[in-house]
Specification:
With 83 residues, the protein is an alpha+beta fold. It has a single domain (3-75), classed as Metal Transport, Frataxin, Chain A, CATH 3.30.920. It has three helices and three strands, in the order ααβββα. A hairpin with a 2-residue loop joins strand 2 (44-49) and strand 3 (52-57). Helix 1 crosses helix 2 (23-32). The longest helix is centred in the C-terminal third of the chain and has 13 residues, at 63-75. The chain is globular, with a radius of gyration of 12 Å. The termini are close together. The model has no long low-confidence stretch (mean pLDDT 93).
């Protein structure tokens, strides 16, 4: 992971939950972590990381969506201190 990916990861886990993260940054983080990202129907994006699967709606980066990304990363064993 590069510096930009680490910054995105720390923003996802920040309190309070940030709004307005760019979806492109979140997707780039998924890829840097080794996730498989594929297109679903409409604006859906399927992501699999460490055996954990999730579906997100692109480009939704409101606070609830960022919390969902945080929950997904946590379930996959990813935290801001563990890459």
């Amino acid at each position: 992971m590069n510096k930009h990916h680490r910054l995105t990861l720390s923003r996802i886990f920040a309190a309070p939950v940030p709004a307005g993260l760019r979806w492109a940054d979140i997707e780039a983080l998924f890829l840097a972590l080794g996730a498989a990202v594929s297109e679903g129907a409409g604006s859906r994006v399927r992501v699999e990381l460490n055996g954990v699967r999730a579906v997100f709606h692109r480009p939704d980066t409101r606070q609830a969506a960022v919390r969902s990304v945080r929950d997904f990363l946590t379930a996959a064993g990813i935290s801001p201190t563990k890459e």
